User: Which sequence fits this backbone?
C-alpha cells in the first residue's frame, strides 16, 4: 500500500520528520519506508491554450498560443491529439529540465519557432504512459508552478502490511496507528448525514447475515455526465498507485483509500427491481469489469437484482451494470462481507482486486453508513445531483468481542514489569475498552475494525509494541531442565555433513517440475498442478526429488562432468482426500565412476551397493528388500524400510526411462523420508572388552531368493548376547551347487566383557545359529567350516 504523507498528516500529525515517522511505525510492527517526492519541476507552470491552428508544414503538428502568466502568450508547437482551445495543461518554459533529462529551449520545428513545451504526465514523470497532454482543472491559476498546483513536494509512505492488519489499509486506519504510536490525538472529521433531495429508493435484501452482515445503498440521480475528477483527487489516487478512470469510480477508490471501505456504483438505468445479496446458483455466470466471464458455484456470493447477477460480492462488479460516461443516475453500494467467503472466491477464480484485498482481511462492520455518506458528499460536490434515502439491511450493531487479559500473564510473557496503569493507557490509545476485574486484570472490549485481536496473547503483543520492543531489556531466563534424559536424534545437518565428507554435493532445485518428467518418474502419483505456473516446464509440484536431481545431473554431464554425486533434502507434495500432504525426503543420485580417477585403483562404475553403504553410514536400522518401482531397473531395485515401515527406494534408473530421457547412462538413485533419519538414535560409546574375541566362519548353501538381510537378521537373533559382530565375506555360485542355490560365507565374532569364552560356549552358540538357519531357511553347511579361529585381542562393537 502507498499513501500520501500530506494526506496522512491531515489525520494525524506528530512532531516527527517523515523518516522518524516511518522508523517508529516499523518498530511498532507496521513496516514502511518513505519514497521521496519526484524530481523538481522548476520552470514548469500551469498554462492555458488560447488558440490552436494547424501547422503549415506538418499534418500531425499544431501551433498553439499558450498563456503562461507572462506579458504575452508563447507560441508552442504541439503534436498531442487532445490539445484544444481553452484547455489548461502544464507548460515547460525554456530553461526547464524534465525528469528524463530533456532540457527545454527555444527551437524551430518545421519552420515554426516553439518557445517551450506542452507536457504529458509521462514527460513529467507522473505516469508510465499517457495518451496526450496532462489536462488540468479549469480553475487552475495560470502561471502557478505546477509543483505547487499538484502539491508535488509531497512524499509517499510505502507500507508492507502483514495479512492480519487490514485495519491499516486506509488513511484513517493508518492515522489511528500513528496517533497511538506517537500518543497524539487523531483528527477524525465528524460528518453529518446529507439532506435527502430525491425520493428514488431501491430496496435491499440479504439472504444470510453470515455471508453479508451489513449492506447499505442509496440512489443519486441527475448527475453531470461531463463532470471531471479534480486534480487534487487524481493526484492522491496516483500517489496511491490507482489510475483515474471516471469521477464516480474515482470517488469509490478515494473513499476506499481514505476510510478503508470498498464501494461500488451501479448504473441505475441498468437495474431491474431491488437489490438482493444471495449465493450463486450453479451455472450462473457474469462478465466482470476486467472483461473476464466467470462461472459461479453455490459457494460464491453475488449482488443481484430481480433478473440477473450484477456483481461478485466483495471482489468485482459486472460489466452490464457498470457506470459509463453516459451514466446520470447511480446506486451506491457500501457493504461488509464475510472475509473467509470472499477470500475463497478470489482464490478459486484468481481475481485480484483492491476490494478483495481488503474484504479478505476484514472490513469494519460499523463503517458502511459513514463511508456511504462520505462518498455521497463527494459525488454531489464533483458531479452534482440529488441524493435519495439510504436503504439498509443486516445487523445494525456489530457483535461485541471481549477478551480477558491478566496482568500477571502480561508481565510474565514479556519478561518485564509494566504497571497496570501504563498497560491501560497503551491499550486505550488503540480504542480498546477496559473493565477492571479486581487486581488480576481486565476485560477488554475489542473495536470492530481490529480483526487481529481475539486472544490474550494478541493484547499482550499490542501492549509490547506500543510500549516499545526496544524498551524491553534482554535478560537471561531461568529454565527448569527435565530430570529424565532426552534421547539424542540425528539432525539433518549431520546427514548433510556426512554426505559432504563422503564426496557428495548438495543441490537445491525447484519444487515446481516438468509434468512429463514427473509422469515418467512417479506415474500414478497424486501430483498437484499449479494454477499459474511460471513456465510450462514448471507446472506441477514435485512428488519426488528425482525430478530435480535428474535435470541437474544432465546439466552437469553436458558440461563434461562425468562423475557426479548429488544429493538434496526437500519437501515433496501429494494430494490425499482433498488435502495437500507434505513429506520431507532425502534423495541421492550417483553416476560415473565409484571413485575419483587415480593411479592406485582400477576404474569401476558406481553401483547399487555404493549408495546402500552411504545410506547406512548416515544411520543404521535400514532394511532392503526386493521391490518393483516404475522408474527403476526391475533387477536392481530395493524398497527401503525402517522398523518394518516403507520409507523409500534404491536402485538404478530403468533402461526405458534412460532412452525416453535421452541420457548417456543410467544413474543410481536413492530416496528416503527424512523422518527415518531423524528417528535413529545417535550411537553411544562403550568401553572395549579386555578379553579376546573368538571367530567362527560358516559356509552355507541357501536358496537363491534368500536375501542377505534376512540371513543376518536370523543369525543375530539366534547368536545370543555374546555375538558381537557378523557379516557376509563371500558369495559363490557355480559348479558343485544345485541350480537355484548359492553359497554364502558368514563370519561370527563372539566376545564377553567379563571373561574369556570357552570353546564349548562358542560352539554351542554356533550350533544354535546353524539349527535356526536350517529350520527356517533350509540352509545346509557346505563342507567344513574350517573350525574355530580365535582372533585374540579384537575389540567388538554392537551390530
Assistant:
Amino acid at each position: 500500500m502507498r499513501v500520501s504523507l500530506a494526506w496522512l498528516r491531515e489525520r494525524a500529525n506528530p512532531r516527527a520528520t517523515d523518516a522518524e515517522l516511518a522508523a517508529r511505525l516499523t518498530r511498532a510492527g507496521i513496516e514502511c519506508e518513505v519514497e521521496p517526492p519526484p524530481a523538481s519541476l522548476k520552470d514548469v507552470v500551469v498554462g492555458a491554450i488560447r488558440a490552436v491552428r494547424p501547422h503549415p508544414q506538418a499534418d500531425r503538428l499544431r501551433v498553439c498560443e499558450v498563456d503562461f502568466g507572462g506579458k504575452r502568450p508563447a507560441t508552442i508547437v504541439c503534436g498531442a491529439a487532445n490539445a484544444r482551445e481553452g484547455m489548461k495543461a502544464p507548460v515547460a518554459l525554456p530553461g526547464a529540465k524534465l525528469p528524463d533529462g530533456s532540457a527545454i529551449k527555444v527551437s524551430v520545428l518545421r519552420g515554426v519557432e516553439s518557445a517551450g513545451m506542452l507536457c504529458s504526465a509521462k514527460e513529467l514523470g507522473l505516469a508510465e504512459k499517457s495518451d496526450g497532454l496532462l489536462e488540468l482543472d479549469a480553475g487552475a491559476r495560470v502561471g502557478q508552478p505546477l509543483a505547487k498546483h499538484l502539491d508535488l513536494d509531497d512524499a509517499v509512505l510505502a507500507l508492507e502490511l502483514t495479512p492480519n492488519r487490514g485495519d491499516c489499509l486506509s488513511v484513517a486506519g493508518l492515522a489511528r496507528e500513528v496517533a497511538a504510536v506517537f500518543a497524539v490525538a487523531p483528527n477524525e472529521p465528524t460528518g453529518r448525514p446529507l439532506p435527502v433531495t430525491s425520493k428514488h429508493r431501491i430496496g435491499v435484501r440479504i439472504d444470510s447475515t453470515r455471508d453479508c452482515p451489513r449492506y447499505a445503498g442509496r440512489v443519486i440521480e441527475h448527475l453531470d455526465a461531463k463532470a471531471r475528477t479534480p486534480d487534487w483527487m487524481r493526484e492522491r489516487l496516483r500517489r496511491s498507485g490507482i489510475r483515474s478512470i471516471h469521477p464516480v469510480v474515482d470517488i469509490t477508490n478515494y473513499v476506499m483509500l481514505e476510510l478503508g471501505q470498498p464501494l461500488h456504483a451501479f448504473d441505475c438505468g441498468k437495474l431491474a427491481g431491488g437489490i438482493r445479496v444471495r449465493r450463486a446458483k450453479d451455472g450462473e455466470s457474469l462478465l466482470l469489469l476486467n472483461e473476464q466471464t466467470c462461472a459461479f458455484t453455490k459457494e460464491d456470493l453475488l449482488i443481484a437484482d430481480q433478473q440477473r447477477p450484477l456483481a461478485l460480492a466483495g471482489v468485482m462488479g459486472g460489466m452490464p451494470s457498470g457506470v459509463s460516461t453516459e451514466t446520470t443516475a447511480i446506486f451506491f453500494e457500501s457493504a461488509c462481507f464475510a472475509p473467509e467467503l470472499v477470500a475463497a472466491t478470489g482464490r478459486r477464480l484468481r481475481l485480484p482486486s483492491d476490494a478483495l484485498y481488503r474484504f479478505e482481511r476484514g472490513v469494519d462492520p460499523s463503517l458502511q453508513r459513514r463511508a456511504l455518506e462520505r462518498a455521497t458528499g463527494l459525488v454531489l460536490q464533483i458531479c452534482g445531483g440529488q441524493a435519495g434515502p439510504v436503504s439498509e439491511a443486516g445487523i445494525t450493531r456489530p457483535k461485541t468481542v471481549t477478551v480477558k487479559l491478566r496482568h500477571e500473564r502480561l508481565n510474565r510473557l514479556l519478561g518485564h514489569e509494566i504497571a497496570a496503569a501504563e498497560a491501560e493507557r497503551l491499550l486505550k490509545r488503540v480504542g480498546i475498552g477496559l473493565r477492571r476485574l479486581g487486581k488480576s486484570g481486565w476485560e477488554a472490549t475489542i473495536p470492530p475494525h481490529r480483526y487481529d485481536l481475539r486472544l490474550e496473547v494478541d493484547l499482550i503483543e499490542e501492549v509490547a509494541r506500543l510500549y516499545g520492543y526496544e524498551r524491553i531489556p534482554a535478560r537471561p531466563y531461568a529454565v527448569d531442565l527435565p530430570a529424565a534424559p532426552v534421547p539424542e536424534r540425528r539432525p539433518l545437518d549431520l546427514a548433510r555433513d556426512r554426505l559432504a565428507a563422503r564426496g557428495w554435493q548438495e543441490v537445491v532445485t525447484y519444487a515446481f517440475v516438468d509434468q512429463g518428467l514427473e509422469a515418467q518418474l512417479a506415474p500414478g502419483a497424486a501430483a498437484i498442478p499449479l494454477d499459474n505456473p511460471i513456465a510450462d516446464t514448471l507446472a506441477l509440484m514435485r512428488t519426488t526429488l528425482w525430478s530435480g536431481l535428474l535435470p541437474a545431473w544432465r546439466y552437469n554431464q553436458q558440461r563434461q562432468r562425468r562423475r557426479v554425486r548429488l544429493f538434496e533434502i526437500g519437501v515433496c507434495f501429494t494430494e490425499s482426500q482433498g488435502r495437500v500432504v507434505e513429506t520431507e525426503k532425502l534423495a541421492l543420485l550417483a553416476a560415473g565412476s565409484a571413485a575419483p580417477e587415480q593411479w592406485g585403483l582400477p576404474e569401476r562404475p558406481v553401483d547399487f551397493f555404493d549408495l546402500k553403504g552411504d545410506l547406512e553410514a548416515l544411520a543404521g536400522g535400514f532394511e532392503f528388500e526386493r521391490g518393483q518401482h516404475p522408474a527403476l531397473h526391475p533387477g536392481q531395485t530395493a524398497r527401503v524400510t525402517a522398523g518394518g515401515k516403507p520409507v523409500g527406494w534404491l536402485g538404478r534408473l530403468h533402461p526405458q526411462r534412460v532412452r525416453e530421457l535421452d541420457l548417456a547412462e543410467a544413474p543410481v538413485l536413492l530416496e528416503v523420508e527424512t523422518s527415518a533419519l531423524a528417528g535413529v538414535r545417535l550411537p553411544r560409546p562403550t568401553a572395549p572388552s579386555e578379553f579376546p574375541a573368538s571367530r567362527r566362519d560358516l559356509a552355507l548353501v541357501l536358496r537363491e531368493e534368500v536375501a542377505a538381510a534376512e540371513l543376518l537378521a536370523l543369525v543375530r537373533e539366534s547368536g545370543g548376547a555374546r555375538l558381537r559382530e557378523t557379516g557376509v565375506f563371500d558369495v559363490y555360485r557355480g559348479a558343485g551347487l544345485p541350480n537355484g542355490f548359492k553359497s554364502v560365507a558368514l563370519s561370527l565374532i563372539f566376545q564377553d566383557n567379563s571373561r574369556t569364552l570357552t570353546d564349548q560356549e562358542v560352539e554351542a552358540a554356533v550350533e544354535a545359529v546353524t539349527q535356526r538357519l536350517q529350520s527356517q531357511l533350509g540352509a545346509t553347511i557346505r563342507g567344513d567350516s574350517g573350525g574355530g579361529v580365535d582372533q585374540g585381542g579384537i575389540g567388538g562393537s554392537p551390530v
User: Anything to note?
Assistant: The chain has a mean pLDDT of 91. Residues 2-37+155-182 form a domain with the Phenylalanyl-tRNA Synthetase; Chain B, domain 1 fold (CATH 3.30.56.10).
